[in-house]
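Q: Fold this one first, please.
A: Sequence and structure below.
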Amino acid sequence: MNRCPACGHELAEPANFCPHCGASLAKLSGDTTRVIQPVTEELRLEELDAADAAAVEALPPDSALLLIPKGTHAGARYLIDSDVITAGRHPRCDIFLDDITVSRHHARFTRAEGEFWVSDENSLNGTYVNGDLIDGKVALRRGDEVQIGKFRMVFFSGQD
């Protein structure tokens, strides 16, 4: 019988997630299926509305902003103003993305020495930067598109 590597809960049957703590068990079950495809259409930076453009211009040098310019969540903004920001479906994540396509603890944004990075936290659907599935830490640049589940966000840093 298998045990959850995160909490030690005994697993009665094969599963993708621990029924006790919600940790991903993909490595135990061997299931690495990605169920959501990246969106490949290009987002144009010129399409920002005046309020989003003003928010980007007002950013301090040591912070960044993720904007959702299109879709059902258009206008949502997420500030990255500390060294570690978590994103996921868990209510305690710094960036709470409430959709089934987002894992509880999906991605992590980090800031170090004036640079911003994103990494996937072993999510089921993966994290994409500019349409590419990432593996490990990826540096972010102005205008990069970060896709977490169905959420497509454009990255802007205050130092650009």
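Q: Good. Now the second chain.
A: Here it is, same layout.
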Amino acid sequence: MPSIVPRFRPRLLACAALLLSLSAPALAQRVVEGDLQQQMSPAEFKAAGLDKLSATELAALNRWLQGKVEAATTQAVAAVREEAREEGRQEVIVKNRGFFDFGSNEPITGVLQGEFRGFGNGRIYVLDNGQEWEQTDATALSGVRKPSPHVSIKPGVMGVWYMKVEGVNTQPKVRRTK
């Protein structure tokens, strides 16, 4: 039985990244909420030499620090959102490969479920990843029996796909149906 974890991992990561991006501003503001004198203990405040600043200088330092935190938070949120967007885009590309052309010449590989008994127009071939491919040409091959062979489905010109079964030289045209 196939594992559920690999199929849902990209979606789980995208959700976690989205939640992190939404909570990051609140966490950053909580860390530097108020002024430095409230955030630090009196000993830390004195050790940093901040007790020597006037009230105006301390207020300017607090505003500068708030601005830096806000800018860093905005940048971090944007990076997390972009990463989540890219992961989602990659998930769509992988999931829909074979239905649409995404510009990749990489073959789709897998194992045929059940026994391979040759080629014939209209035959359906189911891969171990759940994809179903239908033969669309009249290429025929009979008398062959291979239990669960490895296959490679390569894109051709004009949206045509060719299926290569391990140990067989014939490559029929196929199209993805599921």
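Q: Anything worth noting on the second one?
A: The longest strand covers residues 150-155.
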